[in-house]
Amino acid sequence: MRTLLARPALRLGLRIAAWAAFAGWLLFVGLVLALRFAVLPAIGDYRDDLERALGSALGQEVRIGRVEAHWRGLNPELLLDDLALLDAAGVPSFTLERVDAVLSWQSLLRLRPVLALLAFERPVLHVRRDAGGNIRIAGIESGGNSDPAFAEWVLEQQRIRIHDATIVWEDQLRQAPPLLLEDLQFGLDNRGRRHRFGLSAVPPSELAARIDLRGEVEGDLDDALERFAGKLYLELDYADLAGWKPWVDYPVDLPRGRGALRLWGDLDEGAGRVTTDLALESLRIHLGQTLPALDLASLRGRLRGEYRSGAWSLAARQLELLTVDGIRLVPTDFDLDWRQQDVTVNGNFRANLLDLDVLARLAAHLPLDARSRELLLAYAPHGRIAELRASWGLEAQALSRYALAARFAGLGVRAASYFPGASGLSGSIDLTENGGKLNIDATQAGLSLPAVFPEPDIAFDKLKARVAWRNRADGLEIDIDRVDFAGPDAAGNAHGKYRYSGDGPGEIDLQAKIDRANGNAVWRYMPHAVNADARAWLRRGIVSGTAHEGKLVLKGDLRNFPFRDPSTGKFLVTAKARDTRIDYAEGWPVIDGVAADMAFDHGMRVHATAGRILEASLPDVSVSIPDFEAADEMLLVRGIAAGPTNAFLDFIERSPVAASIDHFTEGMRAVGNGRLDLELDIPLRRALETRMRGTYHFHDNQVHLVDGLPMIGQVNGRLDLTDRSVSASEITGRGFGGPLRVKVGSNGGKVTVSAAGSAVIGEVGKHFGWPLLGQLSGSTPWKSDIVINKRNAYVLVTSDLLGVSSPLPDLFNKTASARLPLRVERTGPAPGVEQYRISLGNIARGTVLRRDGKWAQGVFAVGDADASLPESGLAVRVAMPQVDGDAWRNFLSADAGGNAGGAAGDGLALGRISLKTPLLKLFGSEFHDIDVGLAPQGAAWKIDLRMREALGELTWRAADDGWIEGRLRRLHLPAASGSGEASQPPTAIDHLPGMSLVVDDLWLGKKALGQLELRARNLRGSWLLEKLRLHNADGELSGSGRWTRGARQRTDLDFELAAGDIGKLLNRLGYEDAVRQGKARLAGSLRWNGPLTALHYPSLAGELTVKAEKGQFNKLEPGVGRLLGLISLQSLPRRLTLDFRDLFSEGLAFDSIEGRLAVESGVMKTLGPLAINGPAVQVAIDGRTDLQQETQDLQVTVRPEVSTLAIGAAALVNPVAGAAALVANTVLKSPLNRVFSYRYHVTGSWSDPLVEKLGQSEPVPSQEQKP
């Protein structure tokens, strides 16, 4: 250094430089002092100069309200207040409240003003674009030819600040409304080539929240883009994206949307990167004019795009979206990059997850090319792909390399053309242009193979597969290492190889083992080579069943499938079937429970060793289709069936044969077994032309041919059947107790059956449930002819009944040697109508009609009765010269439970019943001129009774215990026989119906008894007699009682007989002139064990009270004395020698008769003497009488009166059986001629009493003397 300084020139230069620096410093100090003390204090004097300088720079007149100058530190500061820019008219177009400019000392170095700070306070700036596109800022036009020096000047200033500005943007070119930005804050810092800026503003609240924009740029205006570097940041917490459309052009149509975003941008020497965080909602986007709008409920995530040196990349992180119709893209990450150099393009794509279902559903809204959209629609991919890695390379737009690796779940594509479809696949794939590997491990998966099967969809519950392939120069090789499958239709495994050379369908070598298969799915796995008719039969014919031990062999060139020539290849499926149901032909009964060996190649063969049709077993049956591809495929069924005959009858009826033989077997039933040999030839294209041949063998069967006929036993023979006929040369058996023979034939759909045999009449009665036939005996030959045509059967059964004897009364009586033609005929006079006609010689005939399966009308006429059909129901009419009702009662039992209108057979209601006969013998009596009609009336029968002995109407209801009511105008009952022969004992009964009867005129023989009223009802096991009243002009009998039914029957009866004139009442009852005048009352109660209709003397008990007055016993004729002789004492003189003729023989007059009687065990006894007081005599009777044995033991005391007045009877009980048997027939007749008292002992029977005189007794007190 010292050496250098020692040089003179250098020392001189240093001195000059030092003086120059000192001089510059002095100049700077002088300048500062000048500014401080000379220029700045007088800055206001330079306002006009400033206005002119600014106006010249801006090209517009400028006005400044006030100018001030200060020092800010060492820098001078200029303050301009109320600065305004004037337009051409001199009106302010832009004003600045204050401008603060701080001068930088760098201005001296650059020889032009450089500001350390330029600040604007609350400016209001109008920016306008006119219709021509010219922009004016504060009235100053800003064109494309503006001087760039202004931009350079701005970038030279150290700091620029704008505070609280307002900007109004008017765009007449877009015809948009004015846009107002308020509270605008702006800052710009310049440090050489580095420029930092920041801007924030508040737009209208309905458009957005505050806008925050920041950035940093390094570079000069004249630098190329590659030399620029910088960063940009934009934050917008809320914006109505659609609301900005009047001022902003989006790259896509955006009718609706709002949300927030943040954006980061980087630029570095030509490489750029943009990162955006999105949080948008209610977004509607049109990505193409012809595409439907995409409506998003939300869109969130981060997007990043980058370009560097010819390479582009696009990435997304946690990108998710939700459409308004529920399509959701779960958070997804992906990276896409590609690089193009000349004609070479390389690309890579990576994704953590792709939801193909979502992408496919969004595809309709995305701007895809036509081919891509066509492929998406055709294949409809769905499922999820994870850990996807893909790469590719293109050379001159041709794919030169590719690689793909991924895992997938639920993957599926739609089958298209020869490409198979799939669904629910899970596994992994790894492939390149040279080959690849595929592993599948899926549940609930499916494959679709439309190129192989007409029913292409195959479902799997489980599917595992290992498959590899190689792309070789001569074609594609696929190695199926192993496939394990299990699904609803089948389960098993397979392995094999497939080669495709590009010519034809390829070659295959596949073997499969089938562990389980469903028979009803076989049709689904028949390839296209099997014709539609055969496939249709497999679908319908194999209804159910399972198969096991199945095997599949498929080997050869598939162009030769199904390999009819064994040298070209092999196709064979075998399996063992069990529990299989085969519906071999429509309309025929199915085969169930089949155990068989099955084989499928170019045809089908099923050989069954077990099975059944209905209830018949099948030990050996084969079903086959010889050739699936034949022009006229045939289904052949051959077999033998054994089992119950009923099953084969059912088989025929359920098959088409039934129609061809007019349902001949429809009503047949059988017991026993047989065997059927059957052959069926069924054209699959013409099933109606099925041919059948069969023979059924009966072995000791029981067969029921038609309704109404009994089972035919010991049936043997054979029945030959075809699809059009039925025949039998001779079937033998036994029916109705005798042998029979049956022949069957058919012709043109008409079936004829001829039968003949012998019947035991008793067996006929048992079969039809006719008890009357049980009274018949013998057997008779019969014949029957049946013709069935169009489901209309004509039946004729005839017999002469030779050999049958009948003990039935009247016309139905017959000897075995007599012939009586019987004819039963069934016809069908009209569709849906059956008519049955029955005739039995000229004795009886009947007709019954059946319409639409229901009995409609019927009549059964006996004798000369009318046989015409009634309008509805069943009419029974009888018209005979006489009817022995008593004889018929011995054959018929009473129907105690029949209902009015009851149904006959299976629904024919019994209508009117009529009986007409001149003479009816019933209950030992004869009734004349009978015309009785019975007709149903609701739940009752109305009886119209017309005969000589009775006239009236009755109603009978059978419900509960029965009820009869009505009114008879006349009822004449025959009198009891007086022959003295023992009468038949009364029929024991255990039930009586309730009743309410009125008989206006009741006669017993020739005795007019008057009007009868009777009312009774059943209550809790008892028959209550509520009212009994027999009334006439001379007296009245009334009573009530109870009959208790059951195991211990009992009858209780209360009665009262009142006679206003004893003589007339007795005359009415047939005892003429027995008593003259007199009044009487007989009352009491009786009880006995047994029914009301049968008096049981051993248990008879009760009490009676007798009162009579003012009458006289007349002289009685023989035959009457048994009832009244005792009281009249008329027979007393016959047994005694005393002479009482003047007192008794000509009649006994009485003033009163009184007494009380008791009955116990059928013996009646007096309770105190029975006293008879009269004007001539007083009589006292005491003792007992046996009512059943008709014996007596009486003490009779007689005291004649001097007045010789006749004594009266004391116990007038003639109408009641108990009162009539009060005493036996009296044996004394002679009149008393003494006035003394005498006692007598009367014993013996009523018909022959014994009288013993005991002697004179003490006087008997008269009625007046009694206390």
From TrEMBL:
Q: What is this protein called?
A: Uncharacterized protein (TIGR02099 family)
Q: Which UniProt keywords apply?
A: Membrane, Transmembrane, Transmembrane helix
PANTHER family given for it? Answer: PROTEASE, PROTEASE-RELATED
| Pfam families according to UniProt | YhdP
Residue spans crossing the bilayer = 12-35
Residues of the YhdP central domain: 13-1251
Q: Which domain of life is it from?
A: Bacteria
> Can you name the source organism?
Azonexus fungiphilus
Is Metal-binding one of the keywords? no
Q: Does the keyword Transmembrane apply?
A: yes
Query: Mind telling me which InterPro entries this protein's record contains?
Result: YhdP, YhdP_central
